[in-house]
Amino acid sequence: MATPTPSQSLALILLRASLSRSLGFSPVRSTLSDVISAPPTSCSFGAPLIMPNGVLKLSVNLGKKTAANPSGECLAHVTTSSDFRAQLLSLVQSNLDNLVASDLPVTNRRCTRREYEAVNGLALGMNGGTIRTAKKKKKKPKKDEDGNVIPEPPYDAGDDVLYVTRVDGVAYGVGMSPSAGRTGAAGRITVATGEKDSQVTVGRYIEVVVKVQCEVQDGEGGEVEEGIEGGGWETEVDGSMGVGGEVLMRKEVEEIAEKVEEMEVKEVKGEMVVNPWDVSGKIDYNKLVEQFGSVRIDEAMLERLLATVKKIGKVTELHPWIRRGIFFSHRDLSRILDLVDAGKPFYLYTGRGPSSAAMHLGHLVPFMMTAWLQRAFDVPLVVQMTDDEKFIWKGEYKDGDDNLDYFRGLTRENARDIISCGFIKEKTFIFSDCDYVGSMYPNIVRIWKSVTYATAQAMFGFNKHNIGQPAFPAIQAAPSFPSSFPVVLGQGRDSEMACLIPCAIDQDPYFRMTRDVAHKMVPRTHPLGGKPALFHSKFFPPLQGASGKMSSSDDNSAIFLTDSPSQIKQKIMGHAFSGGHETAKEQKEKGADLDADVSYQWLRFFLEDDEKLELIGKDYGSGSGEYWATGMVKKELIAILQDMVAKHQERRKEVTDEVVDEWMAVRKLDF
Ligand code: TRP
């Protein structure tokens, strides 16, 4: 992330103070275990993010319901009610306004991380260019027999320069750059109140996200004094935020929460949420298969798949993601294999919602798998680009125009990345919904007619934002039927061609609906009754931790296909969540938690060599051998990703506008 400007640094510490004050918490303590062990005096702030347009995003974690904390202390009763959200945001805004209007002096001190930790008896974790406190007592550095300090993985950052910023009695923060010298310097700090900007979410954790923008973006920094003087920081701030404005105390928060309990949207159970718009919580894939009613890929299926592709003869072994259970669930895959055995045709269908020009590694997973399937089975493929979907959900009308064309442009940008995944050109058709919808329209109308509003509402839970949302699922369903491609696949209403859809499992609800109406879309003789078969993948975990999926709106949660080798290195070193232990001694005793370790999990995706992967897992998991610590594992991953992304960039360079036109041309595919 970018280093904050002085105004942004200021805005961030004021926001921190205002937000915690509004919630009735002290901004001083900062770790989740503090929150759980000592509610309600504390809350846990995530690393702030600076978005490219200067918007600042800060999230605060209010704890979770745990066995140790069964009553769900720490605002566990807070709901996602818009009432609560609106009250909280307006309070934060007025607290910020007060702080700015008071124009209080701000002091900056410069010291090293080591000095800071020595004075405060705390260790700081580095995250996103800002500093996060971690509840850990300062430990003596480990030394080897010769008395040399052994660096702790991933690196020893004791020499890092920190800025300690303070507004006496009001706010306190530690960051990578100094703040402006007075609280008035950033001008008005405006809280973004849009539903997508600032959110109160109740999932596994209860999280509040607030975005702000400051009026003055890059004012001067204040004076900086050297050294961290004696005296802990707790005494300076704790409980004495005299000028912060109104406080919404915990009791009041609970009262509001009680009032709105009936209007509650999501229950506080820390449960996982998986649907096309939201993936959060700790994902339990077994439970998901059970809930969705799909079928787990088992040994027998693996054997049959292998035998089938070997017989076709284009590949000699299964893709590592199939062997490793990353593609883990299916619907009717055995029926597809039956068809292959019987010499009958099928086609592949997958897609992408082009929501940003920057695609990341997670986006490539279904496409890389699809490219392998296409090669292994030697079949045609259609790729739907849902520019309509993204516009319906994320589009805007502003200053006399909307941005539908922006999403149509993204279709072409993203198509270049997709093409670079290695599909067979003569057998692949990529289409934008906006351009191609005409040919699919008769099927779309049939699907609209077949699904009741109540069914769609129950399946997708639309929030009645606009009438495009409930209409859209039919558009994602339509390519599942061969007659949507009269020219491309040369199929009519009497077609018996089957369809197989590789996708991440969050897309499954669309295709459950599709399968329900499928019999109306094909002749009675269709081998699968028209139902598309599915091949589901797990999610590619974000850098920060192995639950949920990566997001392109959070810069540091992903490796983008445009990242340079040094960016890749910096992101992995600085942000990849480690399942290893803090000290070398502990790591050697206990070994790493491989499930939680993002670098190891990413290696399961991208390290092809099974034996090496097993060795790394064994070493790292036990804290011994060549790969005993996080640093070595990260190094391995960095090299693989740098190579992979660089090769992708090379291939993408070859994909000119004309080449995109060729792949997107309506033409009979060759199969
Ligand atoms: N809705 C998907 C997304 O937002 C895009 C998509 C359309 C898709 N058709 C698909 C994904 C078929 C998988 C399979 O990314």
TrEMBL record:
- Which branch of life, at top level? Eukaryota
Checking CDD domains in the record gives: TrpRS_core
As for subcellular location, the record says: Cytoplasm
- GO CC list: cytoplasm
Aminoacyl-tRNA synthetase listed as a keyword:
yes
E.C. code = 6.1.1.2
Q: Does the keyword Magnesium apply?
A: no
Q: Which GO terms describe its biological process?
A: tryptophanyl-tRNA aminoacylation
Give the signal peptide range.
1-24
User: What does it catalyze?
Assistant: tRNA(Trp) + L-tryptophan + ATP = L-tryptophyl-tRNA(Trp) + AMP + diphosphate + H(+)
Q: Keywords in alphabetical order, please.
A: Aminoacyl-tRNA synthetase, ATP-binding, Cytoplasm, Ligase, Nucleotide-binding, Protein biosynthesis, Signal
Instruction: Return the annotated region ranges for Disordered.
Output: 133-154
Family the entry assigns: Belongs to the class-I aminoacyl-tRNA synthetase family.
Q: What is this protein called?
A: Tryptophan--tRNA ligase, cytoplasmic
Q: Which organism is it from?
A: Triparma columacea
